[in-house]
Model the fold of this input.
Amino acid sequence: MPIKILLARQIFDSTGVPTVEVDMVTELGLFRVGVPNTDVKKLAEAVQLRDNNPAEYHGMGVTNAVKNINTIIAPELIKQNYEVTMQKEIDQFMLALDGTETRSRLGANAIMCVSMVVAKAGAAKKGMPLYRHISDMAEVTSIIMPVPHFTILTGGVLTSNELPFQEYSIMPTGASSFSEALRLGTEIYQYVKKTVISKFKMEASYVSENGGFSIPLRSNRDALIFLTDAIKQCGYIGKVEIALNASATDLFKDGAYDLEFKNPNTNPQDYMSSDKLAELYLESMKEFPVCSFEDAFDFDDWAAWSTLTSRTPAQLFGNDLTQTNLRRVGLAVEKRAGNTLGIRINQSATLTELIEVFKLIKTSGFGAVVCDRWGDTDDLFLADLVVGLSAGQVKCGAPARSERMGKYNQILRIEEELGALAKYAGKNYRGPP
Done:
């Protein structure tokens, strides 16, 4: 079933920033994918191509990436007459067309969008759901439904409140199914919304782009007290735990961590060393039901990552640490820096590369979290990806806003389709003990 038509266009992500969408036509019909954007380019990510024309979209247009698909990738790919089930060969062909290590000539956003739509068409050709096709490509033999990370509170660089860390999320690790996890998450989220309205002004209930509430709490401990109380009031202590995203690179200054970095007049003598910050995490885990720390240290503070990993069984989740980059994942494995790593679609240039990263993560005994991105679209590919990989964890923000709820709803549909075969990761969210 070769490709008949491959056509790209510029659309807009959930934040109103341009991104790439691709239509593919085969004998089985039309397949469409919109690729998620990057918010801020990370060091080791594949390069998304932007127009850099300040007169349009503040330089963020993607017409050049679209042009590269329509005038280079599409005609060359169609000429090869590949079957759409030949994912690896197609991905390798596109990377060879690009010819750069960073995917900067054609653009990772262009290449990945085509790679994703090929996977959709390949699943149809094989007569199976997309998640099953992904499982086949990743050599995953049993399907596991993921534990979601629901963002509840936001701080850090995302807000003007005094919370130092970027996200305070909940993980329904004690649920019996994904559908129950979604129920617990939405119930707590709605309880928090009502609490916020009653304690603060109505405006405090307006959410950030990841769906979290930015409320005037003053410290990390205040946020953990607030969130623990919400879990308790809803009756879910023991079923729901807390995941903290420090996004510590935002705090990192001169080899130490400034937890009051929003204050321009902070004293460097008050900055925390890596050891002191680690103690704060360990104390938080003792006092509150915290089970996961994301980006606990700067992405190049390898010694701090390795030291804390050796001191706690809690999840240490490196997201900015490895950036879905095979080389950085290899370093994390070698240094035993963290025990869980993030996977983001838009940090790779092809689905084949992403699957290679996932395989290295899992064969090394690490957990995996499939994550959305700030500039996501309403495309549901990520939901099939996390189920197909049986990653065990998914992070799509709060149970709010359609670009996020759409993915949670798609996982819900997949669980319904699987019936008795659907196994929820639960307390084994990092993989088999």
Notes: The chain has a mean pLDDT of 94.
